[in-house]
Amino acid sequence: MRLHRLEITAFGPFGTTQKVDFDALSSAGLFLLHGPTGAGKTSVLDAVCFALYGSVPGVRQNPGTSLRSDHAPVGTYTEVLLELTVGDRRLEITRRPAQQRPKKRGGGFTTEKAQTWLRQYDPATGEWAGLSRSHQEIGEEITQLVGMSREQFCQVVLLPQGDFARFLRADAEARGKLLGRLFDTRRFAAVEERLAELRRAAQQQVEDGDARLLTLAHRMTQAAGGLDAARIPVEGRPGDPGLAESVLTWAAVARTEAREALDIAGVRLTAAEAGQASARAALDAENDLAARQARHADALRRRERLTEQAPERDRLQDTLDRGLKADRVAPALGLRRDAEREHATAQSARERALAQLPPDLADHGAEQLSAREHRLREELGGLEAARRAERRAAAVAEERAVLAREARADEDALRDAVDWLAGWEPRRTALTERVEAARDAAARAEHLAGRLDPARRRLAAARRRDALAEGTRVAEARLTEARERRNAAHETWLDVKSRRLEGIAAELAVTLTPGDPCQVCGSTAHPAPARTTADHVDRATEDAAYAAYTRAEETRTGAERELAVTRESWSAARAEVQAGPESPEPTVAELADEADELARLHAEAHALAGQTHGAREALARAEREHEERVGAQREAERRVAARTSRREALEREQSALDEELARGRGVFASVAEQAALLERRIALLAHAAGAVHTAELASQRLKESDDRLADAAYRAGFATPAEASGALLDERERRDLQQRVDAWQAEAAAVADRLAEPGTAEAAALPPADPAGAAAAHTAAERALREADSALSAARERATGLAGLSRQAATEVRRLGPLREGYDRVARLAALTAGTSAENERRMRLESYVLAARLEQVAAAASARLQRMSSGRYTLVHSDARSGGKRSGLGLHVVDAWTGNERDTATLSGGETFFASLALALGLADVVTDEAGGVRLDTLFIDEGFGSLDEQTLDEVLDVLDSLRERDRSVGIVSHVGDLRRRIPTQLEVVKARQGSAVRLRTGADALSG
Question: Which letter does DSSP use for residue 132 in this model?
Answer without folding.
Answer: E
